[in-house]
Structures
1.
Amino acid sequence: MWLRQALVSRPRCVLCNLAKENTGSETAFAASRCLIRIIPAVSKNTFSVSKLRPDRNAVRLLAKGDTANCSLPPTPRYNSSILADTTYFEHLAQLHEISSEAKAFKDACLLGRTWLKQRGFSSNINQGGFGHAEWSILMSLLLKGGSSKGSSVLAKGYSNYQMFKAMLQFLATRDLITNPLLFDAESESVRWPNGPNVFDGKIGLNILFKMTEWGYRLVYFI
């Protein structure tokens, strides 16, 4: 579910849906009302992470003359969108690992999904850019670290409700715009303009890259 939501929130992301015509047979695939989704992914070694950092420009403008000496602005959201296509397996493995260590993790994610849906939030940038996918990944990171002393913000022994409430408290008390949350990264190399920053240095991605400042403020003050 989290992967599908992350994909449909990006209009330029390719997602192939396969459905078979109903032939009337009892054994026909269409009778099951199932839909096969083919999700193209990119190997994580395809692109250099250093070239897709938030402070780098990955879009070359077509212009006449020599542009070698021109200073091009960084393209953090474009860069992150490319990197996001390389992180599916990383995030799946991360979520699987933490769900086996913290038994209440799955149910806490379901509580988070309900809470977000009731308030109109989703991974779509037009609906805040913070949905079930971002909630699950952020929670998995907070179960491993995130505090000022290097310890985990959430305890693996929490019940689903305790984990859910602690997650809401974190979102309400930590301003991720003025005080970014960085994992395995140095602040000088991952500055993020006009939005929250939860930067996972292992994959080089701000997992909240789709959130605008206004979208984050809505979550922050609710």
2.
Amino acid sequence: MTNAIITVIRDPGNQLGKRFDLDENGKIVKSPAVQVSFAEAIQHHVPDIAAMEKLLSNVAEDTHAAITNSVFPRVTPRMGSM
């Protein structure tokens, strides 16, 4: 992976995620379901598919966490996984 950084955002006080509904035409509509009180963002180095799979598995089990492919250039990513 050339851009091997994934940022995990976590709010210990509130769940993070999206809400999925159907509109009147049966189309899926997604909207944020987030009320952030306090959050931390940690960049993770994911050099291969196995590392990405492990990170996604950990985040999937934590309703207070979400991922983004945003990178903060002056922040050193955490090596390894969650």
